[in-house]
Amino acid sequence: IFKNNELSVFEAVCRYLKDEVKLSYHDIAVALNRNDRTIWGTYNNSLKKRKESLQILPSEYNLPISIFKSKLTILENIVVYLKENYGLNYSKIAELLNRDQRNIWTIYNRAFLRKKNSEKKTER
């Protein structure tokens, strides 16, 4: 679902969950730990950017919806999951998400630091 140049990762995830999985805005909001209005707005923006449905290509990498429960962004959650659970390198993740590998490196390191800092706060 990420092999397009029009949609952001968040828009692609919302679009996939709404159109393909047939979840309601509320169910998507709960699953992604976001506000219902945010989901509605993101989905509608995706429709303006790309009228046709998403092209869903088979992949050996599956993303459980539970990864989106953390405080990280949608893209950070995906990058961290692919890196830590599948051991993918930055260039492979970039290829899968149709992004530049330098951006993936930055996203992963930013998310790793945020995750590490939040764990330190909970230890106190």
Layout of helices and strands:
Layout (H helix, E strand, L loop, with lengths): L8 H12 L4 H8 L3 H14 L24 H13 L3 H8 L3 H23 L1
Helix pairs in contact: 1-3, 2-3, 4-6, 5-6
What does this molecule look like?
It is built from six helices and no strands. The protein starts with 8 loop residues before the first helix and ends with a helix. The chain has helices at residues 9-20, 25-32, 36-49, 74-86, 90-97, 101-123. With 124 residues, the protein is mostly helical.
User: Could you describe the largest sheet, including whether it forms a barrel?
Assistant: none
Spatial shape: globular
Share in helix: 55-70%
Helix-strand makeup class:
mainly alpha
Oligomer: single chain
Mean pLDDT: 91
Number of helices: 6
Task: Using the CA coordinates, give the radius of gyration.
Answer: 15 Å
What is the structure about, briefly put?
By secondary structure, the chain is mostly helical. The protein contains 6 helices and no strands.
Keywords:
124 residues, mainly alpha, 63% helix, 0% strand
